[in-house]
């Protein structure tokens, strides 16, 4: 009878899961079969071309990655003569699994596998004792030779299979499976270095429990594996009692060899026996060293391939980002486009573009983009005790819209200032009747009104779903679903960005968990970073160097938290925004999930995008400035047209006043003559007096009209002016016009004559006229409208104070400092020139005085004019 080793049937085991391969091999081990391994569809076809196999043992789930065809179907078509046994690894075949007619299935059990293979090959199943007797009847030389051939076949088969595999994980798994097979070990592993932590971590394993593998890390110092990695020498230890691989992980025997590439150790390949007492020898060591040499080349090939794929992906991302960044020349669109692409390219949670204001040592935000999910305790926390208004509205289940113009909410105003928002809309989120959290929606520009109740309810529903998912950990596994839902909330209420917060168990703190959206600040006011508090940022700007920092969780000696902690991030990368060699600002990237240091590769990629962003931003700014200049030119043309109209109207008024003066003079003269000839007791005497007073009044109006419409001579000398007389003259012109709009005028002027003020004739009239008419325009249509003008003399400092006040809506705080600028107006086009207050300030300052404004929302405005006595002219 021919020896069983020489005539052993060849069985090809095909499976991508190495535990499945090992189960099949264990089932056929020592049963008189020669076993070959294939780890992929192509690997199986390659081995079948070179070897005459007697049967194929195949994982039913295997398929061709290129075509999607099941491997069982392909083998049945090309090798129909071969018995095909399908391994049902999961205990139940999926509905779409195709079972060829020449195939049979078997569960992943040793006895079932052995019976199926034996039946397919037409041989009887032998027991262990029968096989042992059969081996004893044969010579030792064929057994040893076959064993060596089998080991060589394993190495050659692995070498062939590794040539087609470029996935690093699959390479490592195949190597570690081969290591356990060659040494008949219980466990196999590959350890690779973690450069940041100075440890070796488990990168591939076989036979090691999943839970153990999750936290399997070994120090590079004072450990056996660390010795192999650092010295590049193998460690072989036979049975010497329990050996400590790592804390609380003991084995009976171990063999570790270095994985060396071009003289540098890149990892450790090892095998352990934990329960059995089999030992490893020099032959096993030689086999593992050869295997490690193959592994080093395969790992490098996979690394180069992965790097090339990564570079190609990065190039694709850069090209796409460049197209998006340069897709618009509008600053409002370009700025958020840049931020969004920065977040996408560096896989971060937040990005912001800042403009560097050297004079004030500030970084002022231009744009911001959020896509953030914070872990509990790492996001912004709002203590409700410091936000009593918000707390009260949430407890009452009320929607609360608060704006910068709204008085009495300093805590909310501070939050809006820091966030760069003009309004915040807070909506409570309820779970049944219990308050679960809140939605805070931020607006750069104040919305017109609170959203309708149907929209609010939709927002509450979406927010509740989102917060529940966050509590269940969905945010960590499916963040895109969370982001899409919150973006929908922003769209529903037209908000710029949104923050979702959960209420703490003690109901005292809102803990931020999600923030999604964007903000753009082309004009002030803008959120800012004070560089005086962060000198490291200032150094990065001045030296044009990256700023790379991660969260520390503790404040600096000066009590200020590092910037990553201050903006609720785990890691931060800042890159100067440089254009033509000059630093104009800073672009920041923040990671809210990982506490890491950005790599040089990530920094370089960020720089590439920031460089494109700088060019796109400069182009958009040039277009923006050009559009602004064109708009200013149009407005200047409109003002010239209005000025021409005003000039023509002034000339017309002067002509009309002149034409009126002649008949008025005749009327008044004749009336005076008739009064002289008429006794007071005559019936017509009172009528003549009325005609005389009306004529004088009409003559005074015409005279005032001529004075105001007359162009001011810049070379005209200053003369003593009676301030009270100029005020009364203007009041006589406008009083009837103002009172016709149901606005009351309350003059409070002294009866005694005041000292004169030196000024050009007619100019002070312009001041009172502008101030009173501005007050009139602000009060039109308001109930109980009042305008007052008061004058008082202060002998102690030789000044006359004139106060013009109204009880109107007040001047918005954000434009208070701009009202005296030329051509600034809040009136509709065609109703104002924007020159009135500018002229007032020029006139007052020309005589050595001052003009100040005090205003309060919904309480009114007060203009105080102070005029010096005996200044501005010859004495």
Mean pLDDT: 79
Rg over C-alpha atoms, rounded to the nearest angstrom: 45 Å
Tally the beta strands. Answer: 32
Count, helices:
23
DSSP helix fraction: 40-55%
Label the overall shape: elongated
- List the quaternary state of the chains: single chain
- The unreliable regions are 1-6, 131-146, 871-875
Strand content: 15-25%
The separation of the N and C termini measures 144 Å
Q: What structural class should be given to the helix and strand makeup?
A: alpha+beta
Biggest sheet, open or closed, and with what strands and sense?
12 strands, antiparallel
Q: Can you summarize this structure?
A:
The chain is 44% helix and 24% strand. The protein is built from 23 helices and 32 strands.
Architecture overview:
The chain has 875 residues and is an alpha+beta fold. It has 23 helices and 32 strands. Strands 14, 15, 16, 17, 18, 19, 20, 21, 22, 23, 24 and 25 form a twelve-stranded antiparallel sheet that branches. It has a six-stranded antiparallel sheet with strand order 8-7-6-13-12-9, with helices on both faces. The chain is elongated, with a radius of gyration of 45 Å. It starts with 8 loop residues before the first strand and ends in a 7-residue tail after the last strand.
């Amino acid at each position: 009878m021919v020896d069983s080793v020489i005539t052993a049937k060849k069985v090809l085991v095909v499976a991508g899961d190495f535990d499945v391969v090992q189960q099949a091999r264990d089932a056929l081990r020592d049963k008189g079969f020669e076993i070959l391994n294939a780890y992929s569809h192509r690997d199986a076809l390659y081995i079948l071309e070179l070897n005459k196999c007697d049967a194929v043992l195949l994982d039913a789930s295997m398929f061709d990655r290129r075509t999607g065809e099941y491997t069982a179907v392909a083998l049945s078509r090309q090798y129909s003569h071969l018995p095909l046994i399908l391994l049902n690894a999961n205990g139940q075949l999926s509905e779409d699994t195709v079972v060829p007619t020449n195939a049979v299935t078997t569960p992943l059990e040793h006895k079932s596998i052995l019976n199926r293979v034996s039946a397919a090959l037409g041989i009887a199943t032998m027991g262990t004792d029968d096989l042992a007797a059969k081996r004893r009847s044969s010579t030792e030389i064929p057994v040893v030779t076959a064993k060596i051939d089998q080991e060589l076949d394993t190495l050659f088969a692995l070498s062939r299979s590794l040539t087609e595999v470029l996935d690093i994980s699959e390479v490592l798994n195949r190597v570690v499976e081969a290591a356990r097979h060659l040494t008949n070990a219980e466990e196999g592993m590959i350890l690779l270095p973690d450069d940041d932590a100075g440890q070796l971590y488990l990168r591939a394993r076989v036979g090691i429990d999943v839970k153990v593998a999750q936290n399997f890390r070994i120090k590079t110092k004072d450990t056996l594996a660390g010795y192999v990695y650092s010295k590049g020498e193998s460690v072989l230890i036979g049975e010497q009692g329990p050996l400590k691989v790592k804390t609380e992980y003991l084995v009976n025997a171990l063999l570790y060899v270095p994985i060396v590439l071009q003289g540098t150790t890149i990892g450790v390949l090892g095998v352990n026996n934990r329960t059995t007492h089999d030992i490893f020898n020099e032959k096993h060591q030689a086999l593992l060293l050869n295997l490690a040499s193959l592994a080093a080349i395969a790992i490098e090939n996979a690394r180069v391939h992965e790097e090339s794929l990564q570079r190609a992906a990065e190039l694709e991302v850069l090209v796409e980002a460049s197209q998006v960044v340069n897709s618009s020349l509008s600053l409002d669109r370009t700025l958020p486009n840049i931020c969004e692409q920065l977040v996408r390219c560096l896989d971060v949670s937040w990005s912001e573009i800042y403009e560097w204001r050297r004079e004030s040592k500030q970084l002022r935000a231009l744009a911001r983009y959020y896509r953030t999910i914070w872990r509990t305790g790492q996001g912004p926390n709002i203590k409700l005790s410091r936000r009593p208004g918000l707390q009260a509205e949430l407890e009452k289940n009320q929607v609360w819209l608060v704006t910068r113009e709204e008085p009495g909410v300093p805590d909310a105003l501070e939050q809006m200032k820091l966030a760069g928002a003009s309004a915040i809309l807070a909506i409570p989120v309820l779970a049944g009747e219990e308050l679960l959290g809140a939605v805070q929606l931020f607006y750069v520009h104040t919305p017109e009104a609170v959203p309708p109740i149907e929209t609010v309810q939709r927002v509450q529903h979406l927010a509740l779903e989102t917060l529940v998912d966050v509590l269940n950990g969905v945010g960590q596994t499916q963040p895109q679903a969370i982001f899409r839902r919150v973006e929908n909330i922003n769209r529903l209420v037209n908000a710029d960005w949104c923050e979702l917060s959960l209420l703490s168990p003690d109901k005292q703190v809102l803990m931020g968990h999600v923030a999604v959206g964007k903000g753009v600040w082309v004009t002030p006011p803008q959120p800012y970073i004070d560089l005086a508090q962060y000198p490291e940022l200032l150094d990065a700007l001045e030296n044009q160097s990256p700023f790379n920092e991660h969260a520390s969780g503790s404040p600096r000696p000066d009590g200020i938290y590092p910037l990553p902690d201050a903006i609720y991030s785990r890691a931060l990368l800042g890159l100067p925004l440089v254009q033509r060699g000059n630093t104009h600002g800073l672009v920041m990237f923040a990671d809210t999930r990982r506490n890491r240091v950005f790599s040089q590769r990530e920094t370089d990629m960020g720089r590439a995008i920031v460089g494109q962003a700088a060019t796109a931003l400069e182009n958009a700014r040039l277009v923006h400035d050009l559009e602004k200049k064109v708009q200013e030119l149009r407005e200047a043309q409109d003002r010239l047209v209005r000025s021409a109209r005003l000039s023509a109207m002034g000339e017309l008024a002067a002509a009309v006043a002149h034409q009126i003066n002649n008949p008025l003079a005749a009327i008044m003269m004749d009336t005076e003559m008739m009064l002289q000839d008429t006794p007071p007791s005559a019936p017509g005497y009172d009528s003549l007096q009325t005609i005389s007073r009306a004529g004088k009044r009409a003559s005074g109006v015409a005279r005032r009209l001529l004075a105001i419409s007359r162009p001011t001579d810049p070379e005209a000398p200053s003369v003593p002016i009676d301030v009270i007389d100029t005020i009364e003259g203007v009041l006589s012109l406008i009083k009837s016009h103002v009172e016709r709009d149901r606005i009351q005028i309350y003059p409070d002027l002294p009866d005694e004559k005041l000292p004169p003020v030196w000024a050009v004739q007619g100019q002070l009239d312009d001041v009172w006229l502008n101030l009173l008419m501005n007050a009139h325009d602000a009060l039109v249509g308001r109930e109980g409208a009042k305008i007052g003008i008061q004058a008082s003399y202060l002998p102690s400092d030789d000044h006359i104070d004139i106060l013009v006040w109204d009880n109107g809506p007040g001047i918005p705080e954000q434009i208070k400092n701009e009202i005296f600028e030329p051509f600034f107006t809040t009136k509709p086009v065609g109703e104002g020139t924007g020159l009135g207050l500018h002229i007032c300030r020029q006139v007052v300052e020309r005589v050595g005085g001052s003009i100040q404004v005090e205003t309060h929302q919904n309480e009114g405005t007060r203009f105080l004019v102070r005029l010096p006595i005996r200044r501005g002219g010859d004495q």
